[in-house]
Write a structure and sequence with these properties.
single chain, alpha+beta, binds adenosine-5'-triphosphate, elongated, Rossmann fold
Length: 418
């Protein structure tokens, strides 16, 4: 037998309505904020992620699924959504749509990580990207969108952490201070962080190895090195969030794991789903388009992990939604009635009803049992008599009541009348 690859999951038919519910909520929320959906390919040129996300970040350096195709091009399964959207924004001149350009996506991301609860090799993200606006109101808008979504699911125990990691003007000062600090602790750091110290010392601040995390606690914080522009941007954002009653904590230690961030970074974290508690991460990335060869364009966005969100809903025992039910099961008694049922089902489905018939050659008793099992709302038994008299009984499966209808009445039932 061939098993599912490690770190991936099937969404089984008995659970897919949960995904559909969460996704449709995301779409409706994005619409309320004026964001339109963008769909980009699942794989891109490897170069895009090396330049866009950064080749010394964990996700590009260690976690990416990279392969050569038959034309010997190096391609990678997307490890995140932002770089592909940026590529598309530049390539399709989306700025022509009028700024700001506000987009969202829902789709898979692939990372070669050690699978564990809340950490998969294929996971799914709901992401939002806002292009063209440098104002902190844009940061606040995307933060408000993520916050409202989590709020509307009534999820308990979520904290929004925000911080600023500065810009190319002030970051070098901070980088230098970080390097100097960790050089003093090099003996107690993990092997990967020793490498990071040379390539990209900021990444050490994101290391989850306990000894490194311990050292990081006293490391310099970016907020101590912000230039005038970055610090007033941060203050303004704090004022907007406070005035709009969006609860947050200023957390001087978060830096996020991707290279493209500038100024604002934020995370929504929870303790309700174990160690992998970051459900959403985002920030501003004003230099992403230029690093991909496009015009300078300020941008801000977030990525939210759908599996982690579903885990939170499950752990909080939030009743997402009942699976959609079959409206009518048409039971048949012989081959003549089977033909009749088949044709009637076609008509009723055209009217928008969800209808099924027996495809298993079951006895009438077994058909009624299976209608019960699929939780049909109503059943109709199409016996000889019903067919010849054009008179049927619509039986409510919940309370057993029967409503007589002529075949004509049944055939003209519409979904709205239902
Ligand atoms: P983490 O710190 O947990 O590794 P990250 O900083 O790598 O997260 P992002 O790159 O910001 O995560 O991705 C956005 C969101 O996608 C995360 O907040 C998380 O909810 C989800 N996510 C990221 N990696 C995985 C994964 N391997 N499995 C499941 N969900 C993930
Ligand atoms: Mg990660």
């Amino acid at each position: 037998m061939i098993n599912i690859p490690k770190g991936t999951k099937d969404v089984l038919p008995q659970y897919s309505h949960e995904w559909q519910f969460v996704e449709s909520h995301m779409r409706s929320l994005a619409h309320r904020f004026g964001f339109k959906e963008i769909r980009t390919p699942t794989f891109e040129h490897t170069e895009l992620f090396m330049r866009g996300v950064g080749d010394s970040t964990d996700i590009v350096d260690k976690e990416m699924y990279t392969f050569n195709d038959k034309g010997n091009r190096s391609l990678s399964l997307r490890p995140e959504g932002t770089a592909g959207v940026a590529r598309s924004y530049i390539e399709n001149n989306l700025a022509d749509l009028g700024l700001p350009v506000k987009m969202y996506y829902i789709g898979p991301a692939f990372r070669y990580e050690r699978p564990q609860s809340g950490r998969l090799r294929e996971h799914h993200q709901f992401g939002a990207e806002l292009y063209g606006s440098p104002t902190p109101y844009a940061d606040a808008q995307v933060i408000s969108m993520a916050s409202m979504l989590l709020d509307e699911f009534s999820l308990p125990d979520i904290t929004l952490n925000i911080n600023s990691i500065g810009c190319p003007k002030c970051r070098p000062l901070f980088n230098k201070a970080v390097r100097k600090y960790f050089e003093q602790h090099i003996e107690s750091m993990c092997e990967i962080c020793k490498e990071r110290l040379v390539k990209n010392p900021l990444r050490i601040l994101d290391c989850k190895v306990p000894s490194c995390a311990e050292i990081s606690k006293n490391a310099p914080a970016p907020s101590d090195y912000l230039c005038e522009e970055c610090s007033s941007h941060q203050q303004k954002l704090i004022d907007i969030l406070t005035a709009s009653k969006i609860p947050f904590k200023f957390n001087r230690h978060i830096v996020r794991g991707l290279d493209y961030y500038t100024k604002t970074v934020f995370e929504f974290v929870t303790s309700s789903i174990g160690a992998q508690g970051t459900v959403c991460g985002g920030g501003r990335y004003d230099n992403l388009t230029t690093s991909l060869g496009g015009k300078p364009t300020p941008a801000v966005g977030f990525g939210m992990g759908i599996e982690r969100l579903l885990m939170m809903l499950e752990n909080a025992k939030i009743n997402i939604t009942a699976p959609p039910r079959l409206d009518i099961f048409l039971a048949q008694v012989n081959s003549k009635s089977a033909n009749f049922a088949f044709e009637l089902a076609v008509t009723l489905r055209k009217h928008g009803l969800s209808v099924d018939t027996d495809l298993m050659d079951r006895s009438l008793k077994a058909q009624l049992k299976s209608a019960n099992k699929v939780n049909a709302k109503f059943i109709i038994i199409l016996g000889e008599e019903e067919i010849s008299s054009n008179q049927i009984k619509l039986r409510d499966m919940q309370n057993g009541t029967e409503t007589p209808l002529t075949m004509e009445q049944l055939r003209t039932l519409t979904f709205e009348q239902w």
